[in-house]
Every structure is written in structure tokens, then in C-alpha cells.
Amino acid sequence: MTLTYQDVMTVDLSSFTDVSAAWKKMGDRFGELKTDYEQQVQGVLGNGNWQGLAYGTQQQNASATAFEFGAAKAQAHAVASLLTDAHTELTRLQKAVKDLVHDAEQKDYKVDSSGKATYVGYDKMSADEKYALHHDPDYPQLMADARTKAKGWSDDIAKAVKAVDDADQSVKRALARATADGNMDGIGFGGFNAHANGDLKTAGKPEPKDKPKTDGWVSEGESEASGPGVGTDASGPNIGKGKLAEAEAHADLGRAKGEGSLTNGPFKLSGEAEAYAGAKVGAEGGITHEGIQGEAKGFAGGEASALGRADAGPVGVYGRGEVMAGAEAGVNAGIGLEGVHAGAEAFAGAKAGVGGGADLGGIGAGATAEGWAGIGAEADATLGKAEDGKWKIGATVGLAVGLGGEVGFEFTVDPGKVGDTVGDIADGIGSLF
Prior knowledge:
Residues 198-241 are annotated as: Disordered. By secondary structure, the protein is of the alpha+beta class.
């Protein structure tokens, strides 16, 4: 929300000092808790009397807990520092606005509740003085000068108010960054921020608006992350949309996602990565004019994936990698206007997989392979339209009892890209005649 002139003139900034002191005190307390935990929990259990896998797991979790106490201290102290800087900067800028208003009023300009200045010096004149002024040949010019100066005061006040709002937005950005954990240390994404920046000048800088360019390459990208959380959702039936019912529940330790690209004329490099840790279950089913579909699935553990692609005009190559540790199970089936698919899976253990392929003019082919350590089986077959608009034919099959794996193939057709390629070829042929 943008601050107004009235906001700036009436806001009380004195509470910043008390709040900053409270955050500093809380940070100190987290530091004491870290010391107590390390000495009275980790130290006692690490005396050598307890050994084995359970001990190792406990110590690993205990180390993460101790780290989070230290991270909480760092985050709280950073917030305290930001609030102190904010109080100093906002107080200075608020005073600048009030000083401008005071100076304007001293020169017989009245400032209204919106920050607009108007000359009122003539109101102090006697009746005879006003009569003489109205009959002065320079009266029109005097009034024009008064309006010009009034606008100058209004503009200066507006700029000063904007400076307060800019500083306020800077404080908002800095506090949001200080309290967001985007690192995998400690318990991972969503814990306390051990790297919180308490310097308002650097932590509050806005994101660059212009896309950076390097030797003709233009980069774009975005990322997001969220911390621990739980939730449920259920809906249905919705006859209008053909949905019978759906339900979902999750308990997330953390999730993060990022994607970006580099483009230079017909050349493009792109990639994306995603990571998740936690547990989730869901089920849904429906019947619409486009077909029948149903799905149920569950997962507990951690998973991550990365995808990279390079394109040069109509020619492109891609590769991807995935890892998973935990347990998952699911079944899905559907038939409709966009194709048919069916599959089932059940697995407990760890997986690592790769895939790669190429396409020319919108027609592509690829293969996938996974290595499994655990117990499970999986089969899947697809003939239909994917979410990105491509038509896909593919199948996978896998089995493991101890060690095993999965192999698969995929063929894709991108109608839009095929059309563009055909058009380019036609244009090229046409240019020959």
C-alpha cells in the first residue's frame, strides 16, 4: 500500500525502538537455548554410552535442531537491526516532510490534507490593501507567480512523501527477505534464516527491473520456496464441471522451485529444478464430455528433479535427472478426447533416473532409465495430449527386489511447432520462385 501525505504526517514511529529491543532480546534468548541444548541434550547423549543407527539418527536431528536455534538468533538480531535502521531513516524522512510544510506555512502557503499548497497571504490584507491589489496593473502576474510557487511547494512535498514511501517499501522487502529461509542447511527450506541480512541499505534494495544482457544473451528466471506446513482440502461433487470428488492432504517440510532461460536470437538455453520433502496423499475422479478419469496417490520422503534444454531454431535437445528417497504408491486411469492412459506404482527405497532426447521441427523421440534400490514395481502407458499441448506416446516398466530399475521410451509431436516448421519451409520454397 502506498503511503499518503496524511499517513506520513500522522504516523507515530516511536514504537520501532521498543519492537527492535524486543527482537534483540529474543535473539539473545535463542542463543542461550542453543548453548543449553548443545550442553544438556547433545552433550549428554554423546557421552559414548549410546551407539548404533538410532544414535546416529538422533545426533543428526539434534544437530539440525541446534543449528535452527542459532539460525533463529541470527534472524532475530537481523530483524532488530533492520527495525533500528528503519526507525532512523523513516524518522529523518518524516521530519523532512514536516519541515517543508512548516517552511511553506511560514511563507503564507497553506497545505491541505492531501499535501497540496495554496497561497493565502492575500487573506491577511486589509480591505484597502486588497482593493489596491486588485487594481494593480501587475495583479494578474502576481497571482500567476503565487500559483507557480504553490505548485512548486506541492511538488516538493509530494517528492518528500514519495521518499518516505520508498523507504517504507525498502523496509518491507528487507524484513521479508530476513524472515525467509531459502537454504538447505539445518532442517532445510522453511526454517529460520541463518543468513539474514540486517543492513537496510543492502537488504532492502529492489529487484532489478531490466533483464540482464550479456553479449546478446537475455536472461529470465524466477524461483519460489515455502517452509513447513500442513493442510487438507476436499471438494465435490461439482456436476457442472463433471467432477465427482477430490481430496488432498499434505505435511510439508519444505519445497522449492526455480526456472530460467538464456535467449540469443534463434538460440535458447532453458532449465528448471524442483525439490520437495514431506508427505502427501490425494484422490480425485470425474466424468466430463471430454472423458472419464480417476487417480489416487500417496508419497512420503524427499524428491528432486532437474531439466535442461537447448534449442537452435527447429532443432532441440533435452536431458533430465530425478532422485527420490521414500515410499510412494498410486494408480491412475483415464479415457477421453485427448487420449488414453493407465498406470500403477508401488515403491519403497531410493531411485535415481535420467532421460534424454531430441526433436526436429516439433517431432521428438527420447528414452528414460532409472536405477532402483528397494522394493517395488511400476508400469505406465500413455497415448494422448500432455499439459503443454504436445501429443505423446510413451510407456515405462520397472521392477526391483533389492536392486532393479525401470526403462521407457517416449515420442512427442508438438502441433504448433510442426505448423511453424512447415510454414517456414513453404516460405523458403516460395522465395525460390
